[in-house]
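Entry 0007
Protein: TerC family protein
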Amino acid sequence: MTVPFWAWLAVIGVILAMLAIDLFAHRRAHVIGVREAALWSAVWIAFGVAFGALIWQVYGAEFGQQYFAGYLIEKSLAVDNVFVWAIIFSYFAVPREYQHRVLFLGVVGALVFRGIFIAAGSAIIASAGWVLYLFAAFLLYTGYRMIRQRNEHMEPEKSRALKLFRRFVPMTDAFHGQRLLVRRNGVLLATPLLAVLVLVEVTDIIFAVDSIPAIFAVTDEVFLVFTANAFAILGLRAMYFLLADLMHRFIYLKVGLALVLIWVGIKMLLKIDIFYIPTPISLAVVVAILAVSIGASLLATRGQARQPLAAPVNPPFRIADPAETAELDPLWRRPVPAGKGTGRDDGSTL
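Output (structure tokens):
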């Protein structure tokens, strides 16, 4: 598969344009409802599917199928990531109108980090093919571990990243709107929203360690690996607002995702020296696993309504009142000490 340099630039340009549109559409903090989330989810999925159709048309069915297999794997694994975000936001009691900004910045960071991981993974595979054995073993182990820990959930208060952040970064004890940083009495402070963003980024990096080897099991083409990741990630914010309150209904999804990882690990192991499983078969198996796990989950929990996770009785941070926020110093300009004006000697100002 030969991809010209201009095609890379075009894809990156489209991604940046989509991010800009999303940022403009959500420039004001507001609670994103189910209808709006469903609409944006449909838009992002349409972009991802349209790009896959373009790949199919230009490069043929094999590469088109590889893209869709990678896109489906990344999209399905991202659902588990969405549920972790729900736990983080619930623990910190982040107001829903502030969550989109955190997710927007988190997705931008995820695109950057995953691009780095993909480039590094491709270079390692090209120079040391035996590393595929490690990738395959890692996927099999991760799938096994997910099955064993299927009923366990992340506990943000025990996160090492959060403990390190609170230890080394001075913080306020309250949310100040959508601000990530504030200045109080001349001192620059992080807000709890920045701590949430850091935790979201760390969790995505952890998930990328699983998902990047998984997509290399279905395609060796770096262009397909990157674009499948990018188009899957771009829709995560809308997916979060659509699915976060349904976390309690996807009771078998984690088992399904574990089986997907085990399947792609087996596919990678066989591909190295034994047998190449055709992409249509691999894609069909992934679709079947996800369909059964999601269908069984919804059937077993039918009749249950949307149910947001309960916030802790005593959340670790509070919401600052308007008067408190108004007393903050300008963020990027230190306040002038009393008695040290910037005017001329005659008392006039410049």
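Curator remark: The mean pLDDT is 83. Residues 61-92 form the longest helix (32 residues).
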